[in-house]
Amino acid sequence: MLFESWPTCNSINLFTQQPFHISNFLIPAGAYRGNSLREEGHNVMKDLRDFIATCEKEGELRRVKAEVDWDLELSHICKVVEEKSGPALLFENVKGYKSPVLTGAFATTKRLAIILGKSTNLSMVELTKAWVDVATKNVVPAKEVKDGPIFENIVDGDKIDTFAFPSPKFYELDGGRYFGTAVFMTIQDPDTGDINLGTYRMGVLDSKTVGVQLLKGKKGDRILKKYGKKGKKMPACAIIGGDPLHIFAGAATVPGAKSVMMWLEPCAVRLWRL
Length: 274
Known about the structure:
Layout: E1 2-3, H1 11-15, E2 18-21, E3 24-26, H2 48-57, E4 61-64, H3 73-83, E5 88-91, E6 101-103, H4 109-116, H5 124-135, E7 154-156, E8 178-180, E9 184-188, E10 195-198, E11 202-206, E12 209-212, H6 219-229, E13 237-239, H7 245-251, H8 261-268
Parallel strand pairs: 1-6, 4-5
Antiparallel strand pairs: 2-12, 3-7, 5-6, 8-11, 9-10, 9-13, 11-12
C-alpha cells in the first residue's frame, strides 16, 4: 500500500462525505506498463515495485523490518523522517499484517524525478519545467487489452474486508483509519463517456465501506451529481498501491482528452495498456 502523510484534520467530517460500498478487490501481482521509449540513461518503470527498487538503488528508500504499529506509530515515524527530508520508508512488518506499507514517495525532488523518469540531478524548477513541457504535448490513446495482472487475485462478496489491509491511523483526532491517501480513483462521465482520474482521501467506515472526500465543484463531484440526477449509483474504481505517476495524472488538467490516461504516455514516454 502507498500512503502519504497529510496535515492534521478532523477526519470525522471526512468520513461522513460520500460512502462507497466495495463490490470487489482486484489485487494485481504486478501492474504492467508495456514496452516503450525511455529517456536516455534512465530506466522506464513498469510498476510500483520498479519504483521501490529504483529508489532503493538511488539511496532514496529504507526498509523498516522492525514491527511498527499501524495505530499512530507508523505515521509518526514517516512524518519525522519526511520533515528531515529523509528517505521513503517501506514498512515490511506492520503489526498484525503481512502486507507492507510505503510512505514518503513524493517527499523529495529526487523521488519526483524518479517517478517522471527524469534526471535526478534536476532542481524542482527544472523538473517542473520538464514536466510542463511534456504534459502539454499531444495526448496519445492508451492501448486497451482484455486481460492483465489486475485480474490475478480477486476477492468479492462476503470475503471483502477493508481491515485486511494495514491502513494507518495518522493523527489522534482522526475519525478512523485512512484506507487511501496517495491513491487514485477512476470514474466515468455518464453523459460524455470521459474517464476521470482523481486523488481523494478515503477513510474506513466499516469492513465493506470507505468514505471518500470529493471536493465540491471538482470534476469528480460534477460527475457524481450527474449520476444522482439519473437516480443511479456511480461506479468507481480505487487503486491503492499503484503507479505513483497516476498521482500526477489525477492532478492534471488535460484539455481535449477523453481520458486522463491519454496524458500519461507523452508525460512519461511509455505505452499504457488498460
